[in-house]
Amino acid sequence: MRSFMQEFKAFIMRGNVIELAVAFVIGVAFTAVVSSFADDILMQIVAAIFGKQDFSSLFWTVNDSQIRIGAFITAVINFLIIAFGVFLVVKAIAAAQARRRSDPASDDVPPSDEVILLTQIRDLLNRPAGPPR
């Protein structure tokens, strides 16, 4: 039983699991923000234009059955808004990482005096041995 618990602890403490948990929590919070934006702002604009806050009241009746096309349209609109928001965040993060990777300031740093001295010593040691002077 102790070995099982040690394996479980090692599994939980791996970086990927912790990163996944953090990403999940942030994703849930971000989804709430984007959903609020969709429901409280964009759908209010839809209500101002069409006279209804959402499309959930739209349906077709076929043989005494209701096909709730409006609820589906509302869900698709919410999905597209959330997906677009996530896309913007991922694109911004990727751009920031690309800028950090190609930072020209880190490439233009001249070697220190110690590095120059060590390079000279290495070159002297690698020179073929000649007759003593």
Describe the structure.
There is one protein chain. The chain has 133 residues and is mainly alpha-helical. The chain has one domain. The chain has 5 helices and 2 strands; from the N terminus they run H-H-E-E-H-H-H. A two-stranded antiparallel ribbon has the order 1-2. Helix 2 (15-50) crosses helix 3. The model has no long low-confidence stretch (mean pLDDT 82).
State the low-pLDDT regions, or none. none
- How would you write the strand order of the largest sheet? 1-2
The rough form would be described as: elongated
Percentage beta strand: under 5%
Secondary-structure element order, as H and E? HHEEHHH
How far apart, in Å, are the first and last alpha carbons? 73 Å
- In total, the number of domains comes to 1
Tally the helices.
Answer: 5
Strand elements, count: 2
Helix proportion of residues, in percent? over 70%
Structural class: mainly alpha
Query: Averaged pLDDT, please?
Result: 82
Oligomer: single chain
The description of the largest β-sheet is: 2 strands, antiparallel
Give a short summary of the structure:
This protein is mainly alpha-helical. The protein has 5 helices and 2 strands, in the order H-H-E-E-H-H-H.
